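Sample intake sheet
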Amino acid sequence: MSHSIREIAEALGAEAVGDLDLVLTGAAEPSEAGPRDLALAMDPAFADRIALGQARAAFLWPGADWQALGLSAALFAPRARYAMAGVTRLFERQVAITPGIHPMALIDPTAEIGPDASIGPFVVIGARVRIGARARILSHVSVAEDTILGDDALLHSGVRIGARVTIGHRFIAQPGAVIGADGFSFVTPTPGVVDQVRNEGVISLTEQAEYVRINSLGGVRLGDDVEVGANSCIDRGTVTDTVIGDGTKLDNLVQIGHNVRIGRTCLICGQAGVAGSTVLGDRVVLGGKVSIADHLKVGSNVVVMGHAGVASNVPDNRIMMGYPAVRHDQHVEMYKALRRLPRLAETVAALQKSIPKPGQSD
């Protein structure tokens, strides 16, 4: 994993100065960087930390005086986080897995394994599964029947993929992710508590029949370049498939309910939940712990801030905050008004004291 400054610059399309033949073997935070590390100091706030480490080269902010910082070489890029993505890709330590199929893997005879795939120990692959080329499947993964996994997939240990799941190319699933579990769908023979709340807004029942399962006949379809975080769950559809578009990324502990349809290039942060049959457009961002109610439509280019609860449809190009979620500007005004309430209460109390009571003379 060693790269010269010249090679790094060419790979990232970055500007390089100084000793372009200097060879580096890793990247590090400036104060912890050794002489063979590239110090990541893309903001002036990190300048003082460079002297605390031993870095000879650093990725700096545009216009930085690299020589005054005591460096032998430097790299510059206008968009720091994007440059960091390239640096981490160059110095990534690939997941260690022995090429080929481990003798302790259990693979159904009808399954098709693509060329150059690597399958670790204690992996179970069901009937009629198709595994794409160069897939890497680590230990204790299970893939159920009739599932299709695209090329260059990476399934970390403990991933569970259910039946009739179709996954595109370059898929990544972190440990413990579950794709294709049954949806959470139940009904009572006669109207129950939930029906009363939805239809009448009151609860008067004293008894209710037991819940009856609605089985999940659909599957899950994931596009290309989708990533699913650790211990996240995507439920299969009731009749139609649950669908997630190309390039969408799910953080850890995310719940996607049955029949949900999510567009392209969305970002869903940790502990967010999307209830059944809701549709999200393209480029939607859900902050941490966001909750989306069922059967809603959230438009494209919508950003929902952390902890918000969406209970109604959201048009395109909105920033949403609060519980229940409202437009960002409305939430700010509501919050300002809330902070003014103590003073308003004091003013009202003072006015009340100045008003004579009935029958009281001035």
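Comment: Helices lie at 5-12, 47-50, 80-90, 193-200, 328-354. The first strand starts at residue 3 and ends at 4.
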